[in-house]
Design a protein that fits this description.
The protein is mostly helical. Helix content is 65%, strand content 0%. The longest helix is centred in the middle third of the chain and has 29 residues.
Length: 72
């Protein structure tokens, strides 16, 4: 019987693949109008501009959603 647990491969960080970047761009562009709307509504309700702008909101949403697609 062979023991596969003792010779586990070392995982290395892979550079982003083209497919991942395409999905990221699509999700970012889809999240951008919603992020602008949320930012405007929060500015109107709070009366001040928030620290996190619409680009940052959309970018963080794309960073959360895109890996979920590839891990499924």
């Amino acid at each position: 019987m062979t023991d596969y647990t003792s010779d586990t491969p070392v995982t290395r960080h892979k550079p982003p693949r083209t497919e991942f970047m395409i999905y990221f761009g699509i999700i970012f562009l889809a999240a951008l109008p919603l992020a602008v709307l949320a930012w405007v509504l929060s500015a109107l309700r709070g009366g001040t501009m928030t620290n996190k702008g619409p680009m940052s909101r959309a970018w963080s949403q794309a960073r959360i959603i895109t890996p979920m697609i590839f891990s499924a």
